[in-house]
Specification:
- α14 runs parallel beside α15 (about 505-520), α15 (about 505-520) packs antiparallel against α16 (about 525-545) and α17 (about 635-650) packs antiparallel against α18.
- This protein is about 30% helix and about 25% strand.
- It is built from 21 helices and 31 strands.
- It is rod-shaped and about 175 Å long.
Amino acid sequence: MDTSSVENADPAGASQGATSLSGIGPGGKPPAFDGIAAALLDDRGTVVGWTGTAQDLTGFCADEVHGRPVQELVADLPHGPRRVVEWPATGRIRLRHQRGDTIDVTFRTTRVKGSADFLVLAAPTPHVTGRQRGAALLRALSAQNRITIALHDTDLTTVQTNAMPDTPDGRPVQPGARLCDVLCAEDAQSVEAVLRQVLRTGIPVLGRNQHVSWRHHPVRRHALSLSAFRLEDAQGHPTGVAALYIDDTDGLRARRQLDLAREVAERVGDSLDVARTAQDLADVLVPAFGDRAAVDLAQAVFDGEEPVERLGGGDPHLRNAALAPATTVWPPGIKAGSNVPPLSDHPLLRRFQRGETVVYGRDDFVALTGGPQLVDQLLPQDTVAVMAAPLHARGLTLGAIVLWRTGLSEPFTEDEVDLMGQIASRGALAIDNARRHTRERRAAMALQQSLLPPATTDTPAAETAGVYLPTGRGEGTSGDWYDAIPLPSLRVALVAGDVIGQGIPASATMGRLRAAIQTLADLELEPDELLTRIADLVQRLAAEAPPGGHDAMGATCLYAVYDPVTRRCAMASAGHPPPVLVRPDGTAGAVDLLPGPPLAVCGMPYETTVIDLEPGSVLALYTDGLVHRRAHDIDDGLRRLTEALATSCRRDIALDETGRALLDELVDEAPRDDATLLLARTRVVPAEDTAHWRIPADPAAVSEARRWATRQLTAWGLDDLLFPTELIVSELVTNAIRHGRPPAELRLIRRGVLVCEVTDSNSAQPRLRRARTTDEGGRGLFLVAQLAERWGCRHGQNRKTIWSEQPISCSR
């Protein structure tokens, strides 16, 4: 039995509190007994005083026991002692009940001050044991530094508590205090609202989560689990409220750290851009882990290269890649893109270079930077602690994460240092992946750019300007290309294509297709025939591809040939979007043509569409990256492109400027695909620079053709070309009469070069051969090849044209 409860017991009060008891139940088991029985004995053990609670406990009234030896009431009197002073101060005995039963009680004896009498206090042993256990439990709970027990009266004033807030003086909360004296005002109001509800309704609150801060330390938040019960008197009236607060701050911190690690895994690494990955890493750390964060990367990482290993002090060759939060005021020396200053050879730097996460303060920072002159430039004034974690991957130190805690924030703990090491490791892998992708993407872009033609061309047929914008999603190039190929007879071929896939494989495929189209263009095939042969090539490339790469081989292409003499443009499409034509009057619209299948599909025919173009028209060829935007379909993109072309294509603006402006206007900031645009403003050869002569089917027409050509060249002032032109005309007209079929035509074109063309209705291909000394013929094309700068043959429907070109003197 608790000594303090016995010594402070009030016999009179005990008697009053036990009036509701009816006696002891059968078998010596007491009913609900809520008091302490008391008896007064003289030094011989005679009963001289008996309380009502003693009567309730034993069934004997005061008259029945007064003057009797106490031994008569004890069933198992201890051996030996006959006097009270010889009895133990406390112990257990069995008392006789009036009914003949016995009662197991725990007793305590104490001498009455100034008298020889002894006061004996007793209670049923089960009650005493239960109270002892309850008291032990209460003491154990009170001793837990994460469990706070508080008793509040009806106005929520603290009556008793074991609360020990981490105040500077370490004093416990005193009785009479209010919650607002301990907690921040807002938190105190929140907790008091819960306690008042318990007082008013009597409904207990169990495990309610409360986040509070001590009044003297408002920055640090504590996570509490609050349980509250209403206290009542014997009549059921509320007398106060008991509150149990369990501090779960460490658990909250652990959950937050897990949440942070999960968020880093989810958010960092989605982008394959180095700067974007660094910014994601900085953003996820603030404010969850620190008040400010910076990610510094080696200069080489931005270029996709591997940084060199550095040991000791000196210039770390680091440049800021990301800052968070963006809205805070940073010291003047810390700016986006700024370089990290040289550092001294310090033990902290050596530890960092070995891959350790280090924590330091202002003094260490002064030592690292070699003096206090950089403190104000690089360190926030209210800095509490700084943590720097190396971004270490594959044996390379790519950079560092620097985290600041400022103001009233707490310093970094050991477990936070360990967590930062894990975050830095994951961040380093993400940045290294982005770095390696940057290197591959730059290589692909360099290959792509080297395979593209000059951005602008200027030919008698048209002036052209091409613009190319790679995808902004980080996948690299997608194999889009454009081309403007000068053809004989002053014509030009315009090409736009889009290869399936990304990166170096797509660029390599694009290069092979472009080379094949240029080769076939020199053969002067019709657009549909050229696309048919390119489709066969793509099928062969797909057959040569490694397993799993067959389906990735394919492309779309638009091929157009413009003749400035006839002002006609012939075009065919292999699954490619139609070109947009901007007329000289400013109206624009897509060309109505029937597209064939993409180049990966064979066995399907292509169809050539021929349109007439006015001088000064602009023909726009493009890839689908220019018209396919987020939240817009291709039809809407084509409409926007047509409207933009109608507005932008003006003679007073250079085509390359127009192309760049259109890409800026039409393409998303981070396009999902490459965007390519080729603009061609057409020209025509004036009628006075061309001459036509119909060739009769008569051998005598050869000399007439020479005379006609001589007169025309003289009229043009090309006297220096009379002799070679006469020979060329003679040989080509002779071949047309001898080997061709009528009708035949001779045409001369003057525009930078002199073009001589002979067309007949025989589609047989002429062959250049070296005649033997005994042969009477076979030297015609050989002579043409010797006299002209270049010559060739192109085929049309049921006809062929043999042509030659001679340069015109620059002085003319």
